[in-house]
C-alpha cells in the first residue's frame, strides 16, 4: 500500500509539473509568434521604403532594428528549446518509472498465474472448502478465493493501463523531439539571417566612414532639429497644463491638479503599463527614447525625448488609451500635432495630416487620431510619438506592449 501511495504521489507530481511547463511553453510560443510577426512587419515596411531614397545612416539604423528583433527571436527560440529539453528529460524519467512499475506488475502477475495453475483443479478448491472446521471459516475461504480472483483481474487491468500510458508517453516524447528539432532549425535560420544583417551593416558603416564628415554633419543636423521641435513641444505641454490648472485655481504649468475623475483615469493608465497598444497598426522604430548611439563614431549620438516610427503610406495614428484631446497645433517641420490627456499622463502624436479628432473631444483606446504624413526632412511616412507624466517625458518602450 505504501509503495502504491508513493507511486500515486509521483504521478501527481509529474502531472503538476507538466501543467506548469505547458503554461510556460504556451507563453513562449505566443512570444515567438509575436516576434515573428514583428520581423514580418519590419520586412514589409523596409520593402516599401526601398522605393524611397534612404541615406546610408538610415539604412544602418534599419539594420540595427532588424538585428535587435532577430536577436530577440533567437533568445525566445533558445528558451523554447531549453523548455522542450526539460520536458523530454522529464518524460524520459516518467517512462523509466513506468517501465520499472510495469515489470514489477508483470512479475507479480506471473507468480499469481503459476500459483493458480498449481492449484487449478476443482477438486483442490472443493477440498480447500470442505477442510474448513466450521461454516464461518468456509465463508472466509470463499471470500479469500473471490478476492484473489478480483486482485488478479485488477493486476491484469493495471498492466494494460500502464502499457497504454507507456505507449502514449513514448508518442509524446517522439513529438517533443520533433518540436525541438523544428525550433532549432528556425534558430539556425535566424542566426544565419543575423550574420547576414551584421555583415551588411559593417559594409555600410565602412562606406560611411569614407566620408565621415558628411554623415557626422547629417546626424548633428538631425539632433539640432530634434532639439528645436522638442522645445516647442515642451512649451505646448506647459501651456496645456497651465490652461487646465487655471480652471482649478492652480498656477502650476508643470504638474496637473487632478479631479477625482482625473485621478481614476491616471490610475487606470498606470495599471496598463507595458500593455498599451502601439499608436500605429504596424511600424519600424527608427529612433528610440533617450540616447541613440552612432555606429560611425562612438562620440556621436542623438538624444530624443520621444520615438519615431516609420510606417507604410496611408497609415493612421491611433490613441493608445482613452482620454481627451486637449490641444492641436501645427509645428514647423513636423506637420500637425495632437496632444491627448489621460489624467496627468499625456500622449503626443505629431507629423499628422488629416485629423479625425478635435479639441476637447473624448476618445477611446484605438480611436483614429489622424493620417500619418511624410516627414518633411526625409520624405518617409513617420509618426513621432511622445509620452509624458505631467511635463516629464517617459520612455514609451516601458509602457507600450512589445516595443
TrEMBL record:
Protein name: Peptidase M23
Residue ranges constituting the M23ase beta-sheet core domain according to the UniProt record: 304-396
The keyword Coiled coil is assigned to this record: yes
Pfam families cross-referenced by the UniProt entry: Peptidase_M23
Superkingdom of origin: Bacteria
Signal peptide start-end: 1-22
InterPro entries in the cross-refs: Cell_wall_metabolism_enzyme, Dup_hybrid_motif, M23ase_b-sheet_dom
Coiled coil (residue ranges): 21-52, 81-115, 159-246
Keywords: Coiled coil, Signal
Amino acid at each position: 500500500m505504501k509503495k502504491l501511495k508513493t507511486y500515486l504521489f509521483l504521478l501527481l507530481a509529474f502531472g503538476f509539473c507538466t501543467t506548469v511547463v505547458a503554461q510556460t511553453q504556451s507563453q513562449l510560443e505566443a512570444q515567438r509568434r509575436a516576434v515573428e510577426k514583428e520581423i514580418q512587419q519590419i520586412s514589409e515596411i523596409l520593402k516599401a521604403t526601398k522605393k524611397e531614397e534612404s541615406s546610408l545612416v538610415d539604412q544602418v539604423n534599419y539594420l540595427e532594428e532588424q538585428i535587435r528583433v532577430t536577436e530577440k527571436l533567437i533568445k525566445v527560440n533558445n528558451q523554447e528549446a531549453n523548455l522542450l529539453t526539460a520536458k523530454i528529460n522529464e518524460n524520459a524519467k516518467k517512462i523509466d518509472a513506468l517501465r520499472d512499475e510495469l515489470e514489477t506488475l508483470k512479475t507479480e502477475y506471473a507468480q499469481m498465474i503459476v500459483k493458480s495453475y498449481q492449484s487449478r483443479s476443482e477438486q483442490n478448491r472443493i477440498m480447500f472448502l470442505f477442510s474448513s472446521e466450521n461454516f464461518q471459516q468456509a465463508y472466509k475461504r470463499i471470500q479469500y478465493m473471490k478476492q484473489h480472483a478480483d486482485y488478479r483481474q485488477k493486476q491484469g487491468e493495471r498492466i494494460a493501463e500502464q502499457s497504454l500510458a507507456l505507449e502514449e508517453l513514448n508518442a509524446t516524447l517522439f513529438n517533443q523531439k520533433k518540436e525541438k528539432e523544428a525550433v532549432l532549425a528556425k534558430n539556425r535560420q535566424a542566426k544565419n539571417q543575423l550574420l547576414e544583417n551584421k555583415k551588411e551593416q559593417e559594409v555600410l558603416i565602412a562606406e560611411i566612414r569614407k566620408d565621415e564628415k558628411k554623415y557626422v554633419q547629417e546626424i548633428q543636423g538631425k539632433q539640432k532639429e530634434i532639439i528645436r521641435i522638442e522645445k516647442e513641444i515642451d512649451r505646448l505641454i506647459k501651456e496645456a497644463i497651465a490652461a487646465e490648472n487655471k480652471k482649478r485655481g492652480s498656477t502650476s504649468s508643470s504638474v496637473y491638479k487632478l479631479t477625482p475623475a482625473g485621478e481614476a483615469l491616471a490610475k487606470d493608465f498606470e495599471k496598463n503599463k507595458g500593455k498599451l497598444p502601439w499608436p500605429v497598426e504596424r511600424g519600424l522604430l527608427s529612433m528610440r527614447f533617450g540616447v541613440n548611439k552612432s555606429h560611425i563614431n562612438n562620440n556621436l549620438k542623438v538624444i530624443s525625448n520621444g520615438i519615431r516610427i516609420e510606417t507604410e503610406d496611408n497609415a493612421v495614428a491611433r490613441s493608445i488609451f482613452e482620454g481627451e484631446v486637449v490641444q492641436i497645433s501645427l509645428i514647423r517641420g513636423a506637420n500637425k500635432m495632437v496632444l491627448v490627456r489621460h489624467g496627468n499622463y499625456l500622449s503626443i502624436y505629431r507629423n499628422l495630416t488629416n485629423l479625425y479628432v478635435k479639441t476637447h473631444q473624448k476618445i477611446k483606446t484605438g480611436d483614429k487620431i489622424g493620417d500619418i504624413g511624410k516627414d518633411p526632412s526625409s520624405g518617409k511616412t513617420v509618426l513621432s510619438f511622445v509620452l509624458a507624466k505631467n511635463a516629464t517625458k517617459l520612455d514609451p518602450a516601458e509602457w507600450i506592449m512589445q516595443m
